[in-house]
User: Fold this.
Amino acid sequence: MSLNTQRNISTNPTPPPSEGAGGRTQYILEIADNSLILGQRLGELCGHGPSLETDIALTNMSLDLFGQVRSYYQYIAQLSEEEKTEDDIAFLRLERDYKNVLLVEQPNTDFGYVITRQYFFDVFHLMLMQQLQYSKDETLSAIAKKGIKEVSYHKRFSGDWVKRLGDGTEESHERVQKAVNDLWPYTNELFEMTETAKAAVEAGIGVEASQLKEAYYKEVSELLREATLEVPESKYFHKGGKHGVHTEHMGYILSDMQFMQRTYPGMKW
Amino acid sequence: MTESVTHIHPKLLDILKSVPDPEIPVLTIIDLGVVREAVVLEDGSVEVKITPTYSGCPAMDVIGDDIVTAFAKAGMKAKVKLVLSPAWSTDMISEEGRAALEKYGIAAPLDATADKEALLGNKKRVKCPQCASKNTELVSQFGSTACKAQFKCNDCLEPFDYFKCLT
Assistant:
């Protein structure tokens, strides 16, 4: 996939690249895997968007996310003491080794879900990138600075659509409200600080995500109200993704995503 | 904050200028501003550093290959490296590049503060590249490639691409 990349793939599923650069790698996965899995979810919509413009928009966003993921994974490959490529990291891990939050693996139930999932993630994603740009790790800082420009567009798009659907027809209002209610319990996990994340903050390379929480809920709640939607009051939240414990949807995503690479090991574009 | 100083060896410039952007062939990669550095190494080979317009821009691999080919034709060995910092911005597009875009039918990026207004249609500032009318409206924030938005002209009724401002 990349310029001048040496390939060396073992047919066995690789263990998580935790040794060597260790904590740093794990922390990058906590951030990067979100972009990979959400990018894959959006990619499923290619040719299936509700209109040509939204189809193109969603797949453009998918492309941005994959671009970010490539930068993160190339960096991890560089940090690794083993011979690894970005493709190994994307395609040859087991479910437990993916550290994405549960929100991004939720299915494309309807356009209301797609947009709500996107908006809930975009608000967080932008806040995270805005902090990550100050990371002492120069590569992470550069990826974040690049990402900010792209994610701002994503948020503008998804936020705009939440308003249009919420304040649209009776049908669109009802559907997007359902999506908001169903996806809300997945939002709190975004701010969970794992031991890995705490160590990264300590080292000056990570972001104290828990501190973004208040601003996040304030911003999201304001937009939902503007969209004439109810802000859920549920205090029950799911978590597990950052520890590799995923919902039942994850296995299906991975089988779809990994099929080619596992069937034809080492294949490349 | 964006530092857009480039270090391109004058001897290499003409060769780099011969490489077009694969998606927008009227722009050379120099006009587009993606070449950040081009130096001749001690062993006589060339090293070129390029930066992506968008993280996922699929044209980057092609641009990398095209650079290697262009230098090979001139009898030189080139290696291409991708750099992320400083992040590319539309300010890095040259004046020649902007003029070439307009001529090709793509509206050139406005300044950063105008961009949101232009994209949201609050103020009509994007000029139709066909008839020069500013009576235009946004169709979609995302267009045929990651770097473009779709507009249409309300006067001549032609749809057109607008190169999104990225700063």
Notes: Strands of chain B lie at 7-8, 35-40, 46-50, 78-82, 106-107, 136-140, 148-153, 159-163. Chain B touches chain A through 32 residues (CB under 8 Å). Residues 7-92 of chain B form a domain with the GMP Synthetase; Chain A, domain 3 fold (CATH 3.30.300.130). The longest helix of chain B spans residues 59-73.
